[in-house]
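Here is the promised in-class demo. Please do not try to memorize the tokens; focus on the logic of going from shape to residues.
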């Protein structure tokens, strides 16, 4: 009898402890687990296991039941849902360059702060839903429950806009510096999130600097070049802006996209485009004898164009210089704004 009363007390405690963790819709699942637990205890009681072993086993089984994962939003058991903390961090919004969005997980909810003009700050609330987040944009005049989907590096919205999470890896790449045309700067990621910046101002003497990332900012030690020790650069979604207004623009395939003028063929424009489906780079033009199309590839500040269809070299390397492409023969294609 004592053992039976003990069973009742244990099961009662488990039921009370789990009342807030399970919804009514999980009732059937819970009863199944409790039934299994009762059967296990009955077997142990009938087999004559001593009191200490019996109580220990009940505690272990009870702990396993209480420890089942619970959805912090709905109070239901779930699997594979992204916690609110996944979304925490600083984000860049291409629709508002230089205007970061800060996301913070507060319990099971999310608070988002930002500005669209650098003057007026707004605050939104959101709720995580699996690998997505429902954001209430109504304080900004938008929809109450706009669904944003986490894609591994940011939040993608139904209109195609993406808030990209800013991490040390965000800054990795090749950059064009308008203060030093044709002299790219390369940022790489080192141990523990530290950045290494390499470049040259004249193509002969090369320097190396160290940097650290703090949210949407990078602190670069320019002292080896005679500059400040901790110069703050701000990520604006397409490059790094410094306090003097200079901007290092990251060089990607998109950098080369546009219409160009070629001084060797006045009035015969060249066009570079990227196929959105394949990512391939196409170069087209017309020298007055009919249109032509070439295939190219991009590697940071360099573009390799196959000019063989025009009777030229198969892999001619052009160098991005900030406002166009410089070729080995001294010719330059200038991009049109």
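The designed amino acids, position by position:
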């Amino acid at each position: 009898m004592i053992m039976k009363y003990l069973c009742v007390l244990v099961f009662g405690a488990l039921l009370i402890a789990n009342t807030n963790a399970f919804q009514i819709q999980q009732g059937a699942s819970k009863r199944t687990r409790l039934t299994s637990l009762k059967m296990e205890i009955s077997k142990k009681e009938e087999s004559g296991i001593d009191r200490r072993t019996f109580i220990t086993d009940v505690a272990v089984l009870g702990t396993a039941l209480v420890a089942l994962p619970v959805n912090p939003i709905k109070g239901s058991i779930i699997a594979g849902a992204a916690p609110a903390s996944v979304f925490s961090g600083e984000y860049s919004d291409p629709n508002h360059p230089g205007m970061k969005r800060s996301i913070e997980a507060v319990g099971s909810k999310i608070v988002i702060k930002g500005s669209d003009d650098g003057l007026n700050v707004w605050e939104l609330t959101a709720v995580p839903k699996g690998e997505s987040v429902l954001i209430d944009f109504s304080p900004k005049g938008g929809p109450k429950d706009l669904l944003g989907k986490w894609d591994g590096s940011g939040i993608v919205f139904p209109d195609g806009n993406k808030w990209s999470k800013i991490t040390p890896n965000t800054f990795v790449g090749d950059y064009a510096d308008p203060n030093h045309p044709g002299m790219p700067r390369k940022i790489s990621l080192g141990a523990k999130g530290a950045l290494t910046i390499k470049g040259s101002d004249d193509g002969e003497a090369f320097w190396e600097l160290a940097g650290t990332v703090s949210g949407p900012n990078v602190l670069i030690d320019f002292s080896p070049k005679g500059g400040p020790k901790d110069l703050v650069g701000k990520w604006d979604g397409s490059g790094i802006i410094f306090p003097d207004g200079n901007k290092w623009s990251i060089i990607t395939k998109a950098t080369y996209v546009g219409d160009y003028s070629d001084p060797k063929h006045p009035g015969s424009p060249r066009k570079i485009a990227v196929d959105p489906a394949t990512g391939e780079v196409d170069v087209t033009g017309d020298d007055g004898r009919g249109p032509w199309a070439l295939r190219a590839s991009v590697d940071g500040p360099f573009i390799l164009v196959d000019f063989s269809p025009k009777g030229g070299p198969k892999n001619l390397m052009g160098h991005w210089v900030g406002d166009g492409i410089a070729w080995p023969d001294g010719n330059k294609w200038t991009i049109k704004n």
